[in-house]
Automatic annotation (TrEMBL):
EC main group: hydrolase
Similarity remark: Belongs to the isochorismatase family.
Organism: Kaistella solincola
Alphabetized UniProt keyword annotations: Hydrolase, Metal-binding, Pyridine nucleotide biosynthesis
Protein name: nicotinamidase
UniProt superkingdom: Bacteria
């Protein structure tokens, strides 16, 4: 069974000192580097939040405060601080992440009108990123997933992967949660387990 490692959004803005820093984010980078060193993956894919400056998920573009929720194209949209803006330092991959073996990069959140938590598609399920096509082309059946953040982009990437028929494994030691609410990370794990995602150590 051919397998791929999907590394979700390990970017400066989600790491220590970033605009939307995930608590403990930097702790997962050595773990991810070890996974790449100690395992033979057929493909290693990075996902990258890549927002235009006028993205509608940014509180600043809606006259709202961070943490408020609006309805965007018919679904609730959490208001985030500006982050991972195209071409900025914050959107770059963290410099400690070893990218020597990376075979593919998928950019998401590029349309100002739609947010994209999942590495596979936008939140409205209108536009695919091309990740599924890439994996199917390379006959990948097993996905191991790590990255940021557990309760948003990692969760939705895992759920989509399972729904698309991949054997889907989350490395618990390779992810951290935003925890806007204290139990968000725990709830995300429970939801994934209910949807045939295997959680590894």
């Amino acid at each position: 069974m051919k397998k791929a490692l999907i590394i979700v959004d390990v970017q400066n803005d989600f790491c220590e000192g970033g605009a939307l820093a995930v608590p403990g984010a930097n702790e997962i980078i050595p773990y991810i580097n070890l996974l790449m060193q100690d395992n033979e993956y057929d493909e290693i894919v990075l996902t990258q939040d890549w927002h235009p400056a006028d993205h509608k998920s940014f509180a600043s573009n809606n006259g709202k405060k961070v943490g408020e929720t609006i309805i965007l194209n018919g679904i609730p949209q959490f208001m985030w601080p500006d982050h991972c803006v195209q071409g900025t330092h914050g959107a770059d991959f963290h410099p400690d992440l070893n990218r020597e073996k990376v075979t593919h990069i998928v950019r998401k959140g590029t349309n100002a009108e739609f947010d994209s938590y999942s590495g596979f598609q936008d939140n409205n399920h209108f536009v695919k990123t091309g990740l599924d096509d890439f994996l199917k082309y390379h006959d990948i059946q097993l996905l191991e997933i790590v990255g940021l953040a557990l309760d948003y982009c990692v969760k939705f990437t895992c759920l989509d992967a399972a729904q698309l028929g991949y054997v889907t494994c989350l490395h618990f030691n390779g992810t951290r949660a935003v925890n806007v609410k204290p139990d968000n990370g725990k709830d995300a794990i429970f939801e994934m387990l209910q949807n045939t995602v295997t959680v590894l150590g």
